[in-house]
Specification:
448 residues; alpha/beta; Urease, subunit C, domain 1; TIM Barrel; 2 domains; eight-stranded parallel beta sheet; 18 strands; 33% helix
Length: 448
C-alpha cells in the first residue's frame, strides 16, 4: 500500500486564501530539508508574530503577519490565535488504537507488585486483549476506537500510525486492519496502517513457534498485501516474543510483498532489534530503553528513525527510559510517540509524552516538539505531506494557548490545544459523536 501522492496546490479563482491564521506569538514551522538531526533538532524555524494562509486543504504561505494579511480578501476567513503558538498538527507515530476489552485489572496487579513480563507469561498481557478482540466485528472495533481517536485528536494529534496485532489469526488481523481503514475514511484524522501479526505467539501456538511464523509469512502477509490493508510490517523483537532470526524472516517476507519494515526493539532487554532494523533499512525502531552505545552510533549514521515511547516506561513503573539525549547527540532521527494500548501505555495524551520526553529522555523542549512533528512524520512515511508548516504541505495546524514552547512543559499536565485544523478545516468539537460526550437530561426525566 503506497502513501497518497500530494495533490497540486490550487488557488481560488479570485486569488484569495480561504483561511488565514493570524495573531500568533510564534508560528513553529518545523521546516527544513528532511528530518531533524543533531543540533538541528533544537531549531523549530519559528516565525515571531507570524501567520499561515490556507487554500483548500493546502498551506499557501507562511510568514510575518504583515505580509500574510495582505494576501486576504473579502472571502477569506480569519482565525485569531490570540497570541498563542501555531504549529503543525502532531503525528503519533506508534499506536495500537483498535482493540477489545480492558486491562485495568492488570494495572491493579502491577500496583501490587506484579511485573508486565509475569502477567504476560501467565496468559494475560497481550493475550488477554487478543481474546477480547477476536470476539469483535469490524463495526464493534470502529465504535470502540472512535472515542479514543477523538480524545487524541483534540489533544493535537492529526495523524496516527495505527497497528494491528491483537488478532493473531488470519481472520482477526484482517478484521483489525479493516477497522483501521474504515476509521481512516471516517476522519477527520488520518491513520497510517501497520501490520503487526508478529506481536506475540497466540495461545494456540504456544508450542509451535515455527508454525506461527509460517502462518504470518505464508498466509497473513500475502493477504494483507493483496488487500492493500497496510503500508508497514512490524515485529515485536524481544525476549518472550520473537527472536532476531524470526523477526528477520517476517520483515523480509513483508519487504518482498511491498511492506516497509518497523520493529519494536530493545524495550525490556537487549534484543538485537535495533541492529536488525538498521540492517534491513527499517523506517523506524521503537522503544529502545536497552539500546547500547554501538547501536546508538549505528542509528546516528542510518536513515532509520528512533521512536521513543517514554509513556510505556512510565506506565510500567520502569526506571529505565530510552536515551534520547545520547541519540540526538549521535545524529539519530529521534521521534516521540504515545504507544497507546490497553496494557502498557494506556494514555491518550501526547502532551504527557512531550513532558516525559523532556523530563525522562533528556530532550530539550524544542527537540521534543520536532520529535512529534517533522521527525514523527518521517517515521510513518508522511514527511512530504505533514509534520511542518510549509507552502504545499497539507494544512494540519494546531493552536496552543501558550506564548513560548517552554510553557508547554513548564505548565505540565494541561491540554494546551485550543483549536485543531485538519486538511484546511477547523474541526468543531461538536463534531465529536454523542456517545463520546457527556449527556445531560432533567432529573425528572428519570421518573417520567
Amino acid at each position: 500500500m503506497n502513501p497518497p501522492k500530494p495533490p497540486q496546490v490550487t488557488a481560488r479563482d479570485d486569488g484569495y486564501p480561504d483561511l488565514i491564521v493570524h495573531n500568533a506569538s510564534l508560528v513553529l514551522t518545523c521546516a527544513g530539508k528532511g528530518p531533524r538531526r543533531g543540533s538541528e533538532q533544537d531549531d523549530l524555524h519559528a516565525v515571531p508574530d507570524g501567520a499561515v494562509a490556507v487554500t483548500g486543504s493546502r498551506i499557501t504561505a507562511v510568514g510575518p503577519v504583515t505580509d500574510i494579511m495582505q494576501m486576504g480578501g473579502v472571502p477569506t476567513t480569519l482565525l485569531d490565535a490570540r497570541g498563542g503558538i501555531v504549529m503543525p498538527g502532531m503525528v503519533d507515530s506508534h499506536t495500537h488504537p483498535v482493540y477489545g476489552g480492558n486491562r485495568a485489572d492488570e494495572f491493579l496487579k502491577r500496583l501490587a507488585g506484579a511485573s508486565y513480563e509475569e502477567l504476560h507469561a501467565a496468559g494475560g498481557g497481550i493475550q488477554a486483549t487478543v481474546d477480547a478482540t477476536r470476539k469483535m466485528r469490524v463495526a464493534d472495533l470502529v465504535e470502540s476506537a472512535r472515542g479514543r481517536l477523538w480524545s487524541m485528536f483534540f489533544a493535537g494529534v492529526t495523524t496516527f500510525e495505527a497497528k494491528s496485532g491483537y488478532g493473531l489469526s488470519v481472520a482477526s488481523e484482517m478484521t483489525q486492519l479493516q477497522a483501521i481503514r474504515e476509521l481512516d475514511a471516517e476522519g477527520p484524522w488520518e491513520l497510517v496502517p501497520t501490520f503487526l501479526g508478529a506481536h506475540a505467539l497466540p495461545r494456540e501456538c504456544a508450542d509451535d513457534r515455527g508454525g506461527y511464523v509460517d502462518l504470518v509469512c505464508e498466509k497473513m502477509i500475502p493477504k494483507v498485501a493483496a488487500l492493500e490493508l497496510a503500508e508497514f510490517c512490524d515485529v515485536f523483537c524481544e525476549r518472550g516474543a520473537f527472536t532476531v532470526e524470526e523477526s528477520r524472516r517476517i520483515l523480509q517476507t513483508g519487504q518482498a510483498h511491498g511492506l516497509i519494515p518497523k520493529l519494536h526493539a530493545d524495550e525490556l532487554s537487549p534484543s538485537g532489534g535495533t541492529r536488525l532494523g538498521v540492517e534491513l533499512g527499517a523506517r523506524s525502531v521503537d522503544h529502545l530503553p536497552y539500546v547500547n552505545d554501538e547501536e546508538i552510533e549505528l542509528l546516528g549514521k542510518s536513515n532509520t528513525a528512533a521512536v521513543l515511547l517514554p509513556a510505556t516506561s512510565f506506565f510500567l513503573f520502569k526506571d529505565r527510559y530510552a536515551p534520547g539525549r545520547k541519540l540526538v547527540d549521535a545524529g539519530a532521527i529521534v521521534a516521540l510517540a504515545s504507544d497507546h494500548n490497553p496494557g502498557s501505555s494506556h494514555t491518550l495524551s501526547m502532551g504527557r509524552v512531550l513532558e516525559l520526553g523532556v523530563m525522562r529522555c533528556g530532550l530539550t523542549v524544542r527537540e521534543a516538539l520536532n520529535a512529534v512533528t517533522v521527525n514523527a512524520a518521517y517515521a510513518v512515511g508522511r514527511e512530504k505531506e505533514v509534520g511542518t508548516l510549509e507552502p504545499g504541505k497539507q494544512a494540519d495546524i494546531i493552536i496552543l494557548n501558550v506564548s513560548t514552547p517552554e510553557d508547554l512543559i513548564y505548565a505540565w499536565g494541561v491540554n494546551h490545544v485550543v483549536a485543531v485544523i485538519k486538511r484546511g478545516r477547523l474541526v468543531d468539537r461538536r463534531r465529536q459523536p454523542d456517545e463520546t460526550r457527556p449527556k445531560t437530561q432533567r432529573f425528572s426525566d428519570l421518573f417520567s
